Amino acid sequence: MSDMTTLSPVAASTARIGRWRWQETAFWLLVVASYFLFSDRYLILTEIAWLALFALSLDLILGYAGIVSLGHAAFFGVGAYGVGLLAKHGIIEEPVLALLAAGLMAMALGFVTSFLVIRGTDLSRLMVTLGIALLLRELANRFSDITGGFDGLQGFTIAPVLGLFEFDIFGRTGFVYCTVVLFVLFLAARRLVNSPFGLSLRAIHNNRLRAEAVGIPVDRRLIAVYTVSAFYAGVAGALFTQTTALASLDVFAFERSADLLLILVIGGGGYLYGGLIGAVVFKILQEIFSSITPQYWLFWIGLVFVVIVLVGRERMRRWARVAPDFLLRRLGLSRGVGGGGSRGGEP
Amino acid sequence: MSVERRVLLRAAVCAVAVGAFAGMASAQETVKIGLIVPMTGGQASTGKQIDNAVKLYMQQHGDTVAGKKIEVILKDDAALPDNTKRLAQELIVNDKVSVIAGFGVTPAAFAAAPLATQAKVLQIVMAAGTSIITERSPYITRTSFTLGQSSIIIGDWAVKNGIKKVATLTSDYAPGHDALKFFKDHFVAGGGQIVEEVKVPLANPDFAPFLQRMKDSKPDAMFVFVPAGQGGNFMKQYAERGLDKSGIKVIGPGDVMDDDLLNGMGDSALGAVTAHMYSAAHPSQINKDFVAAYKKAYGQRPGFMAVGGYDGIHLLYEALKKTGGKADGDSLIAAVKGMAWESPRGPISIDPETRDIVQNIYIREVKKVDGELYNVEFATFEAVKDPGKTKK
Questions:
Q1: pTM score, whole prediction
Q2: Are residues B136 and B152 in the same domain?
Q3: Interface size between A and B, measured as CB pairs under 8 A
Q4: Looking at the domain assignment, is residue B17 inside a domain?
Q5: ipTM over 0.85 threshold
Q6: How far is A288 from chain B (nearest CA, A)?
Q7: What is the pLDDT of residue A55?
Q8: Angstrom distance (rounded) from CA A341 to CA A247
């Protein structure tokens, strides 16, 4: 830090943490490469993309601010139905605008419910978030003349993106569209968490009392990040509806929220890429097992997750780095190999 | 000279080999079928029955028809329509399937319908029973049933058999709404009265509070529709609440008395009268053979979902025979129209106008046969069409 005397300590620190690393470039290059490498698997890649965005939104509140949630599907669902209803009634046809509108709807809900969520302890937060999602699911079921009830919202078409790119049966447009949205929102999230605002969230996460003592407005910060996270989840839900052209009650399902927690556990919270990597691993495992054994895949995937948690992510990350580290040592580049932007762990 | 001969010989061998290869390739041309059913989750029993029945049929009839090898690709959608849609799309785009089949619940069938239209592939609905499914795409045909078919029959039967007041309990989704609507149309028109009407949520329903209301409204009978797989739970709570002793009869479409679960329901199910297209006790030789083979292979009784799957794959085999192996959507859908055959459930056919199934509906009563519970058929209504379409 001493070599950055021209900057204030906070700015220096955020600049250091927020530096763009080569691993990140590599990650996004891989994403671009997947477009060319897996040209017959755009549909599953699309699912990974919106799932990653959804996981990113949970990471914002769980990994950074320490708010646990078992009802994040509430915002996903609002985004999904929002975009579906907008398209069905021809209110906003252009997908990007509809996406923003649906995100804002989810954001409004996030803002309102944040007052319930910031109160109390982890356990009560779990209950409150779970309750909100269940409530919305039942509302969607009850008002079946609007939402289609259990049969889902169907029979609408999604207009071409920006009026140019039609959603095709191969899912190419859907994939590119989702990935671009993911990348843009990822950059925004990255900017957010590496700002003083992000640092204050971490302070709250680490020790709420101390954060309050140094003058961080804890409640306001939590409300803000919860609202932003709701926007992200809403956009993820909207992408889901736009790429599949349907919305059904299971967008609010408890399983969706629970899977999301699992994804974050696999990928690791608090460094943004956790959700992305978790989503990739989760979907690929699911796809592999369910095509090998359509009957019993839940067993195998459960087993793998238990193993992942038991072995521990840290250890696996060390194993995964053996080869690249060796290569770098050989090239005489042993310094500056921070793990995928891990939390302040730079030498 | 010897060199020349060797070259000639080699060329000849090559030619033969190539010829054989080409011959093999044409003989081995495959028709792929994407079978999308719920194998996990609440509707898993539907998927398992269909999968079993399709496998059984292919064991009995071989996997080659009209010179084509049939390959079934099984996928689990857990009854979630977005899964169904993605799987169908991948099967069509990547695996190049000629037919998509299965569809455990109505929303799943709806979700795949636009793809069938867009890609011009045949979609065989083997389970889902909402009337309008077949209207969602010109490439859809169905080998299960519609709720309307059995609901109107049981409605008429109730009127004729002195049932005046009925309370209804139906699952809150499209097939449930169909069942209720068609039953009411016929029952109320015949002079019956609906004294209580409840809709129960589809996922993990708790019937107990509704059953108390039913009991309090003192009907002669209760009309029940719950999807396959939930009947066991329903009858358990029905007995726990003492409704079996209060003289309130269970009537309805046969889904609640699914053969799959019937035997485990206990004596409280005795006397329930339902209208449906299949009973494992159907007294035909074809059915006896089918039930015996199914029991031998899987150790349990086939239910109506299994028959839907069995007839679905049969329909495809026959259609391929008719088209001479041509598997494009237009040829196949043309071939299935008007197809008629003897199924384990009785004589059935595909309506050439609507592509929906036409079949006998039987009225059955739950009775004990050789110590096991069966739906014993006692009246037959022949060649019933889907009332959702004949009305128009």
A1: 0.80
A2: no
A3: 76
A4: no
A5: no
A6: 12
A7: 94
A8: 36
From chain B, pick out residues whose CB is under 8 angstroms from the CB of A297: 40, 76
Residue B3 lies in a domain: no
The nearest CA of chain A is from the CA of B342 a distance in Å of: 31
Q: Is residue B222 part of a domain?
A: yes
Is residue B257 a part of any domain in this protein? yes
Query: CB–CB of B172 and A171 under 8 A?
Result: no
**Average pLDDT over every residue of A317-336:** 69
Q: How many domains does chain B have?
A: 2
* Residue B90 near residue A43, CB atoms below 8 Å: yes
CB B257 within 8 A of CB B353: no
Find the angle CA(B154)-CA(B158)-CA(B159) to the nearest 5 degrees. Answer: 125
Domain that holds residue B272: 148-276+361-390
Of B92, B107, B201, Cβ closest to residue A141: B201
**Taking 60 as the threshold, does the pLDDT of residue B11 lie above it?**
no
